Structures are given as structure tokens and as C-alpha cells.
Amino acid sequence: MRCLVCYFSPTGNTYKKCKEIIDVLKNQNHDVNMINATKREIRVKNNIENVIYDVLIVAFPVYSQRVPNVFAEYLKKIEINCRKAIIISTYGSVTSGNALAQAARILKCKGIFTYGAIAIPTEHSYKSVFKIKISPYSYSDELRKFINDAILNIYNSKTVSLKSKFVISMFLNQQLISNITLKLPKVNIKKCVRCKKCIFSCPMDAIDRNLNITTDKCIRCAACVIVCEYGARECIIKNSISRKIISKSIHGNKKLVIFT
Ligand SMILES: Cc1cc2nc3c(=O)[nH]c(=O)nc-3n(C[C@H](O)[C@H](O)[C@H](O)COP(=O)(O)O)c2cc1C
Ligand code: SF4
Ligand code: SF4
Fold this sequence. Notes:
The chain is an alpha/beta fold. The protein has helices spanning 13-27, 40-43, 69-77, 99-109, 127-130, 140-155, 172-178, 197-201, 223-227, 243-249, and strands at residues 2-7, 31-36, 48-52, 55-61, 79-81, 84-91, 113-121, 186-187, 233-234, 257-259. It has a domain at 2-170 and 253-259: Rossmann fold (3-Layer(aba) Sandwich), CATH 3.40.50.
């Protein structure tokens, strides 16, 4: 099969999962192309794919229980010659909310139907802000099984319905943590060595040559904070939530959500 993987991954978790999936597909002799929609220059291009694909794999992180706005807008406008999709999301082990069902709806409006969807718990993009360490966990076997089941669904023309059982988080702590946002990440001049890595890491081109951030462009993804090896991009959370609630709830939900 000819597969197109289209992903958005400011802090790299989603990209890592895409790589695992691509390895599985390549081992089965499927052709795989990739679009890295993390970079703004890719998203603003004339997004027309002339090749005919058998399956489109879309992958993104969950932001406030939804598809990140910037990626949702990109999905709406991209023109892809493909009718079948598999949806992958990663979430910071708080809650995956309604993101998979939302992505499936966007694709359906374009005549692309979903044959499998998964939300994978990972580390939270704000882990360095919260200063909370977690022991690593991986779901490689489950991910491999999921992708094989989804491919089988495509061969058997069996779409999945995400409407009936999408995840609504019932817990107040999950609601609070998933809606947490950062203040604009400032530069600590004393620590900064002007390596400019933060500029290149930004998916929104929001950081100028003088390392200042345009407030309206910033989506608070924390890529610039994580990439800075000198701890010079400092940021704090906007919401007034107690440390106790954060440390209790962050990384508190490591459930895979699978639709096959
Ligand atoms: C603005 C923002 C909102 C987020 N909202 C949620 C959320 O609602 N639930 C959750 O579990 N994780 C949430 N996260 C964590 C990310 O979904 C998670 O860390 C993801 O794996 C990051 O993917 P990436 O490394 O590919 O960018 C959020 C992260 C950011 C930056
Ligand atoms: S990545 Fe850190 S050290 Fe490098 S320019 Fe940005 S803030 Fe300065
Ligand atoms: S400036 Fe904002 S959008 Fe750009 S990397 Fe930093 S947090 Fe993300």
C-alpha cells in the first residue's frame, strides 16, 4: 500500500510514535511518504498532493483535549488524493478528550473515512515546567498490533465509529490540568548563549532574531523551552493551580484509547 504520514509534533513525542509506525509499515513492504506539518513553511505552502495514496495517517498531540487549532486548520485545507485514514494522537497522560473524534470529523468532511484511531499516553510537553519526573513507558507492542488491525480494517473495508465512545474526562483535576497554559516563555539573558536553537524549534515562527516572541503567534507548545540546553527559556504556568493538584494529576492517566 502507498501510505502518507502527515504529522504535527512540536516537542517530538508524536514524531517518535510516527517513526515506530513507519518501521512497522516499511517492514511489511508498504511505501511510506511523510509530511512534517510542524514547520510553518510546510503548512503555508500550496498543499496539494498529486500522488494517489491508499491510506493517510494523521498524527498530532492533544491540546486542551482537542486537535491543536493550527493543525486542525491545516488538515481542513490540505488536498490529498486518498479516502482512507488512520488517526494517531499522543497525549500528556492527563486526558485525550475529544481529539480523535474531532480529527475524524474533519477528515470525514473531506470524504476521508477512518479505519483505526489511537490515543497514546506520553510525557507531557510541560514536564520541564512542572519539574515532574516520570519513569518512561512504551506501548510498542500495542502500537504494532493497532496498526496491523487498522490495516486489516482497510483491506476489509471496515470503518470505525468514534462518535459512540469518545472519551469525555469526568475528573475535575483532568479538566484543570488539560486546560493549563503557559505564560510567554521569556529569555534569561544571564543563561542564554544565543545559540538560536529556540528560534528554529518554533512551529509558528514566533521568535525573532532578537529572541523576542510575538505573543499572538505563540501557541504555548513549549518546544523552545525543551530545546534550550541552557535552561534559558523560562516560563511559568498562567493558571493558578496548586502544585499538589498538578503533581497528583499530571501523568496520572496512562490508558491507551483504541478504536479498531
Ligand atoms: C498547549 C498544550 C495543551 C495540552 N493539552 C493536553 C491535554 O488536554 N491532555 C493531555 O493529556 N496532554 C496535553 N498536553 C500534552 C501533550 O498532548 C503531549 O505532551 C504530547 O505528547 C506532545 O506531543 P509532541 O511532543 O509531539 O508535541 C498539552 C500540551 C500542550 C503544549
Ligand atoms: S535556545 Fe536557549 S541559549 Fe539558545 S538562543 Fe534560545 S534561549 Fe538562548
Ligand atoms: S515561542 Fe511559543 S509557539 Fe514558539 S516554540 Fe515557544 S512556546 Fe512554542
